[in-house]
Each structure stands twice: as structure tokens, then as C-alpha cells.
């Protein structure tokens, strides 16, 4: 069991929803709605030589290992550790503020239920010290990515045939609940449009679709109703304009037509991956063709922000999980490639923000900023703290540095 101090603190940080009217409810979700800035992380400078953790970082940045698969997390002293052991194969993640000024980082486990699966959470004190770790979802399979909601819950997605979406409580106070209305398919990630009250979802199939979910109003807690609504698939014309087609049967069983095949006239996307919403735009990646897409939610127009096949300097390949900085820069994690997190600014300029060396058989997952955007979390899904290389079971890192100064207005 956790020590009494930990249990007391977890009780104190319990957070409820302030409802849909409080969409701008904390710095962890500022990047969803903050205006985009012209100056940003593409100007951090060249990466230094690998440090003792095998990370190449810009000058002035530091790193540490927060968690390693199968190990208890270190608190304020190496001999003081959490009772919970970190899961294997960490994937998508996000952060959530706590009432005392700390924060929580949640992380999916991309493996089958008997070996882990589900979602884990690590709770940080305001000074960044690990305070607790615990599971918030279990008995699920290949939890790949997902997305945060404006009411401080985590939507965890199963990347399996007829996969489901579960809404999880990062604070560990409520049991996770399945959200069948979001469809049964090989889910990758989900993003919430905080202005128009809709959700967007990616599908990790070679002939996957790009989906939109229109909630059926608000639920009893004044949040977007994820219990009922309309799931739609995108049909994109030659000018990039999207027509949304209603999916006839969002929750097919094994003997029924898979979700993505119910609308042959809808547009296919080759391996949908990470997705993020900010300030009227949805960004998502497709790994099959190494593209980064941008949807203008007001115009319903889709464009290609980056295409490795046509880029003059295709430094970004293996596009996967994404997040957005407080200054509007898009951070794209590589699955393979050069094992980098690459920044794309609003002018289309690219630059590596960091690189993991010696783990070429792994992938970078779960990039997410702390609520105050002073720290960046991410994982090497098959990295190993003990044995080195990319054949391990996963490491989760924290990078600190002058993010605030770089992103200052």
C-alpha cells in the first residue's frame, strides 16, 4: 500500500469537473485553445552530444528517467519508492493539473491485458518530485494513444480490431468507463474540439478512416455527452473540403461489416496516428505515408502540413504521437526514423527538439508538457534502463529547460 501521506494527498488532489463552461480549466490544456505564436521551439539550436541517458538535447536542457517498466518509481530519495511498478510498452500520454499545484502524467500500455494493458498514472508534487503512481485502467488490450478532455479525463484507445475507447479518471477516484458511442475499430487517438464541442478520431489501418463524433448535447454533469451521439467518417474532395458521412453501425460485432468499410465513398488514410486540437485546427499524422495533416474546423478543409515524400529536407519520418506547445508549435514523435521529437512551426519550418541514441528498435511515444509547460514527458516504448538498446520494455523520461523563455510572447 502507499504510505499515509500519499493517500492523504491523493484525496486532497481529487478534482471534479466544472462543466463544459470551464473548458479553459488549466495550464495542461492551454495548448488546445491558446493563439498560435510565430516564435518557438524550432529556434532552440543544435542538439548536443548524447548525455548519460543517451539523449541528445539542446544546450541548456536536462533530462531524467521518471519510470522504467517493471520498476517502482523513485520519490525524493532513491530508497523511497512507490508501491506501484510502471507498466510495459508505454505509449500515448497527457498531463493533468492537481489542486495543490502539482500534476499527473498518464500513460497507456500497448500490450495485452494479461501482461498489463490499460493506463498508469504518476503523480508529481509542485516541485516535480514523484509522489505516487497507480493504475487507472486495466483488463484492456493494446492501449495505444488517446487524448485528454477539457473536463480533465483521459480517453484511452484500444488499437485492436473492434477496439474500444475508455474514459479514465487521472486522479484515481472513479472507475474507468467504456464509451461505445465513439465506435468499435482499431483506434489510435482522439482530440476534443473545445470551441465547437466535437471529437475527432484516427484509425490505425492501411485503409483507415478519419472520424468525427458529434455528442448528443451535454450529459448530467454538463460535459459533452460521450454516451450518445453520431459517429461520422470524412469524405474529402479534390480541394480538401470535407463532407462528413454518418456511420451506419459504429459498434459492429465480429460478424458485421467493420466500421471503416461501411462507407466505401469515404476517404482512406494510411495508418492514422497521433491527433491534437488547438485554436480551431486539428492536426494528425498518418504513418503509412509519413504525412502530417491539418484540418480547419471552421472551413471543414483539410490540407497537408508536411509530406516526407515531397519535403526538401525530410528530416521527419515515422510520424506518430503529437502534441502542441503553448506557443503553437507542433511536436511530432518518431516511431523509428531517427528516434527524434521534431518541431514544426506555423510557417512549416522543421527542427529536431531531442533525439534518443542507441535505441533504434524502439519508438518515441506519449509527448506531453507539464501544466506550466516547463517540462516535457515522453517514453521510449521498448527502451531499457538496465540492458540498453531498443529491446527492453519501456522507459519514461522528463526533459526540463528554458521552454518558458523560448515560448514567451
From TrEMBL:
SUPFAM superfamilies on file: YWTD domain (SSF63825)
Highest rank taxon of the organism: Bacteria
A matching Pfam family: PhoX
Protein's recorded name: PhoX family protein
Source organism per UniProt: Microbulbifer spongiae
Amino acid at each position: 500500500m502507499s504510505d499515509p501521506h500519499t493517500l492523504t494527498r491523493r484525496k486532497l488532489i481529487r478534482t471534479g469537473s466544472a462543466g463544459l463552461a470551464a473548458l479553459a480549466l488549466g495550464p495542461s490544456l492551454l495548448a488546445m485553445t491558446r493563439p498560435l505564436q510565430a516564435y518557438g521551439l524550432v529556434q532552440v539550436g543544435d542538439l548536443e552530444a548524447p548525455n548519460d541517458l543517451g539523449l541528445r538535447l539542446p544546450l541548456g536542457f536536462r533530462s531524467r528517467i521518471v519510470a522504467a517498466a517493471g520498476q517502482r518509481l523513485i520519490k525524493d530519495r532513491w530508497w523511497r519508492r512507490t508501491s506501484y511498478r510502471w507498466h510495459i510498452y508505454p505509449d500515448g500520454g497527457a498531463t493533468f493539473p492537481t489542486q495543490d499545484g502539482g500534476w499527473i502524467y498518464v500513460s497507456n500500455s500497448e500490450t495485452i491485458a494479461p501482461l498489463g494493458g490499460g493506463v498508469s498514472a504518476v503523480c508529481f508534487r509542485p516541485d516535480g518530485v514523484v509522489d505516487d503512481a497507480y493504475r487507472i485502467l486495466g483488463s484492456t488490450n493494446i492501449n495505444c494513444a488517446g487524448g485528454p478532455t477539457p473536463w480533465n479525463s483521459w480517453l484511452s484507445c484500444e488499437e485492436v480490431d473492434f477496439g474500444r475507447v475508455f474514459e479514465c479518471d487521472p486522479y484515481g477516484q472513479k472507475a474507468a468507463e467504456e464509451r461505445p458511442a465513439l465506435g468499435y475499430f482499431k483506434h489510435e487517438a482522439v482530440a476534443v474540439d473545445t470551441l465547437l464541442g466535437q471529437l475527432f478520431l484516427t484509425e490505425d489501418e492501411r485503409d483507415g478512416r478519419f472520424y468525427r463524433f458529434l455528442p448528443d448535447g451535454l450529459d448530467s454533469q454538463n460535459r459533452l455527452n460521450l454516451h450518445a451521439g453520431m459517429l461520422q467518417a470524412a469524405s474529402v474532395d479534390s480541394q480538401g473540403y470535407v463532407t462528413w458521412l454518418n456511420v451506419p453501425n459504429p459498434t459492429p460485432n465480429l460478424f458485421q461489416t467493420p466500421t471503416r468499410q461501411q462507407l466505401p465513398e469515404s476517404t482512406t488514410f494510411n495508418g492514422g496516428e497521433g491527433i491534437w486540437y488547438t485554436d480551431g485546427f486539428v492536426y494528425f499524422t498518418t504513418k503509412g505515408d509519413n504525412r502530417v495533416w491539418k484540418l480547419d474546423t471552421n472551413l471543414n478543409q483539410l490540407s497537408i502540413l508536411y509530406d516526407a515524400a515531397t519535403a526538401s529536407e525530410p528530416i521527419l519520418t515515422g510520424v506518430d504521437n503529437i502534441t502542441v506547445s503553448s506557443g503553437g508549435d507542433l511536436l511530432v514523435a518518431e516511431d523509428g526514423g531517427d528516434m527524434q521529437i521534431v518541431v514544426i512551426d506555423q510557417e512549416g519550418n522543421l527542427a529536431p527538439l531531442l533525439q534518443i541514441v542507441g535505441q533504434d528498435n524502439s519508438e518515441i511515444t506519449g509527448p506531453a508538457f507539464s501544466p506550466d509547460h516547463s517540462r516535457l514527458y515522453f517514453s521510449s516504448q521498448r527502451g531499457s534502463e538496465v540492458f540498453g538498446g531498443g529491446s527492453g520494455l519501456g522507459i519514461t523520461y522528463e526533459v526540463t529547460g528554458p521552454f518558458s523563455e523560448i515560448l514567451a510572447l
